[in-house]
Write a structure and sequence with these properties.
about 25% helix; flat
Length: about 300
């Protein structure tokens, strides 16, 4: 416990303890040697002094012997510093995780067209317009009121002589007609047709045709016939599955094209060929079999 005390506390306890010990030794050995009747008539004073030293010693132990509370006081600033640092670093982490929003597409540039009206003409600052939103800034330089109207669309307010007005309209590609709607002014010449250009719509990419399903045609051969399971064929790759139901060997050939191997009686084989639209001729190339009737012409669509 003494090791935990500060130097000042140790000195205080030592001084008070030394004073108490000196008083006790003096009262027990030193004073009786010179005054045998000690304390004699001074007994009340001796008792008071003894109690003062006793309670002084207790008070010194309570005051100087108490442990300092530095640990608790130092811990509080540390916790406060930790909280402050945590608070200060929070916005940084928030900013780091916030994604930047991608920039949006640029807004189209608005079209502004100057229009001059007078008796009895409508004059535009440009000969053609672009499809989209157009704002006409109208100036009446004439001597009487005019307005500006779009056939099938809106019209401006009546504009007094030497005054201005505006008209905003959405135009489609093609031709638009502008005129003054004041009675008699259009017929007098305040009528103008203007071409409105626009980006041509991109034609959709042609849809690729699905790959044609492979054609498989069953063919039966016998003396002396060739029998197909289908009366017509489709142009493209065709696989003939040939069955020889006859008693002698046969094959299957295409005029101007390939032919199968020789197929023994009751045997099978295949022949694959790419056919073009028109008519194809199938036959057996074994000598004499074509002349015997093993020849067939079939339409290819």
């Amino acid at each position: 416990m003494l090791l935990a005390l500060s130097t000042g506390h140790k000195v205080g306890l030592a001084v008070v303890g030394a004073a108490f010990i000196i008083f006790a030794l003096a009262s027990s050995f030193l004073f009786p040697r010179f005054r045998p009747q000690f304390p004699g008539h001074g007994l009340p004073a001796f008792i008071v002094i003894a109690f003062v030293f006793f309670f002084g010693m207790l008070t010194a132990v309570g005051v100087f012997g108490a442990e300092p509370k530095k640990g608790h006081k130092e811990a509080e600033p540390t916790a406060a510093q930790t909280t402050t640092q945590a608070t200060a670093t929070t916005p940084t982490s928030t900013n780091a995780t916030t994604p930047n929003a991608p920039p949006g597409p640029p807004a189209p540039t608005p079209q502004v067209v100057q229009v001059t009206e007078k008796e009895f003409k409508i004059i535009l600052s440009r000969p053609t317009l672009k499809a989209g939103v157009v704002t006409f800034q109208i100036k009446n330089t004439g001597a009487i009121p005019h307005d500006l109207a779009v056939v099938g669309g809106p019209k401006s307010a009546l504009i007094k002589a030497k005054s201005t007005g505006t008209l905003t309209v959405t135009l489609k590609p093609g031709t638009t007609e502008l005129y003054c709607s004041v009675p008699g002014h259009k017929a007098a010449g305040m009528d103008l047709k203007v071409k409105v250009s626009g980006a041509k719509a991109k034609s959709a990419a042609p849809t690729p045709k699905p790959a044609a399903a492979p054609q498989t045609v069953n063919v039966t051969e016998k003396e002396f016939k060739i029998i197909l399971a289908s009366s017509t064929l489709k142009a493209g790759k065709v696989t003939f599955k040939i069955t020889n139901a006859g008693a002698i060997p046969h094959d299957l050939a295409i005029v101007g094209g390939p032919r199968s191997k020789l197929i023994q009686s009751k045997g099978t084989a295949t022949l694959t060929a790419t056919l073009k639209p028109g008519t194809v001729e199938l036959y057996c190339s074994v000598p004499g079999h074509k002349a015997g009737g093993m020849d067939v012409k079939i339409k290819v669509s």
